[in-house]
Structure formats: C-alpha cells, structure tokens
Design brief:
By secondary structure, the protein is of the alpha/beta class. Helices cover 41% and strands 10% of the residues. Strand 3, helix 2 and strand 4 form a beta-alpha-beta unit. It is globular and about 45 Å long.
C-alpha cells in the first residue's frame, strides 16, 4: 500500500461524532504505509446512532474501544451505545491521576477532576505541553495498557476521549511512532483536529459535563498545538525512543512486534 496524500479519504462520517478518522495510509520511515481499518481516533461516542454502530462494527471491523476519559466523565455522561455491544471490548484507561476522579457541583456548576480545589493548577490554565507530559508522568500504566489494546486487538481499535484531541492525540502519536510512521506525518495528523474544532466545541458545549469548563475561553485556545506533541517526543527520545520509554513501564518486545504487524501494511 502506498501512503495517502489526501486526508479526505481518512475521515469517517458519523451522525453522532465529528472528529473521527482512520490512521491508515500514513507513510512509514523507510517506505510503506499504515493499514486502514486498524487504528481509528475520535471524539466521544456518547451520541452514536444505530447506523454509526453498524458502520463501525460491521463495515470497519471494530472490536476494541480505548476510552481515555476519566471515570467522572463516563459517569456523568452515562452509558455509550458501544458499551452494550457484545462484540466490542471497551477499555477504560484514564490518563489523569486516580485521586479525585469524581464529579462535583459547586454553585450549580459541574466541576470536573481537573478543575477541583485539590488541583494545584487546573488543567485548563496549564499550557498543552505541560498537560501532555503529565499524561505520561502520572499514568504510564494507562499509556502502556492503551497501546497494548492496540497491539492485541482482533480487529479495528478506536481511541477516543472527549474532543479526540489531547488525550487521544498523545496515544495516537505514540502508537504511530512505535509503528514507524514518519514524524512529520504524525504531526500533520495531530493538527487535523483543528479542521473540526468548531463542530467539536459545539458538541462539548451542548453537554453539561463540559460546558462550564469551556465557556469564556477563546476558540483558538482549543486548537491543537504542534509544540505539545513535539514535547512528548522530546521526553520519550530522552529515554531512547518510544519503545525504550514504554519498556521502562512494563512494555515488551513482543508487544512491539504485535503492534507493528497490525498497523503496517504488508
């Protein structure tokens, strides 16, 4: 398979999500490309319709979902349509610290774990680079488990959080780098979420879970920043690369082989 030069063929149109794309067709270092229908990324899946579920499950071969939201988000949003699918395994793997993972209400406003009084600097006031590095520093167990799910799934894996931008962006970037995707291509894919930012914000602002956190922030503050993913790569490169960093947290060479076998086109 040759690498895709057209991003349009990687977007997946769903009724209940707006930032969904296939990570197939991306160029590998040394030649070749990633396989389609192996790794997908998305914003949250709460609003999927029956048509969406059938397309993901039956047409795209979805067998696993990696849900990177906190327990608080999942609890507040309620069950998602794929949670009840017998043929789909949902892996709940928060990238935020376990402490304080609950929804609170203060003066009628929903307060999420990253906003609470026990958080020294609320996430929304930190720069994206600091937030992304914290995912790796605070929850390497979830990072390893998320990538293990990608490596060991029988069919397509869909990784998502709320917007499909930050948490999803980090896990997707690590998976692609481990598979051997050229870093420029990984960065380009990460920035593609900016093309859907208005639709993403409209979805999140319609949910009480996220609306209070988003109001009052300028649109452009939500755009993906290249420097944030570059900071993640700088951190793992200091350890000798993504695989070396993962091995420090329980990853094995067999998992690397499995992930590359699944994601690389033959």
């Amino acid at each position: 398979m040759t690498a895709s030069t057209d991003h349009a063929d990687r977007w997946i149109s769903l009724d209940g999500a707006v930032n969904v794309r296939d990570l197939g067709g991306l160029p590998l270092r040394g030649g070749g490309a990633t396989r389609f229908r192996r790794l997908l990324r998305s914003d949250n899946l709460q609003d999927l319709t029956g048509r969406d579920v059938r397309l993901l499950r039956d047409t795209l071969g979805l067998t696993d979902v990696v849900d990177l939201r906190t327990g608080a988000e999942r609890s507040n949003e309620g069950a998602a349509p794929l949670d009840g699918e017998a043929s789909v395994t949902v892996h709940h793997l928060s990238l935020l610290p376990r402490a304080g993972d609950e929804v609170k209400e203060v003066d009628g406003s929903v307060v999420m774990p990253w906003q609470g009084p026990d958080v020294e600097v609320p996430v929304k006031r930190r720069d994206a680079q600091t937030v992304y590095l914290a995912y790796l520093q605070d929850r390497p167990d979830s990072v390893v488990s998320a990538l293990s799910a990608v490596a060991q799934a029988d069919g397509a894996v869909l990784v998502h959080c709320a917007a499909g931008k930050d948490r999803t962006g980090v896990i997707s970037a690590l998976a692609l780098d481990l598979a051997g995707v050229e870093r420029d291509a990984t960065l380009t894919d990460f920035l593609l979420t900016g093309d859907r930012i208005d639709a993403i914000l409209a979805r999140l602002l319609s949910s009480r879970t996220y609306a209070d956190d988003l109001r009052g922030r300028a649109r452009d503050t939500h755009l993906p920043r290249a420097a944030a993913i570059e900071a993640v790569f700088a951190l793992v490169d200091e350890a000798g690369g993504v695989e070396r960093w993962l091995q420090q947290h329980g990853w094995t060479p067999a998992l690397t082989d499995a992930l590359r076998s699944r994601l690389r086109a033959v």
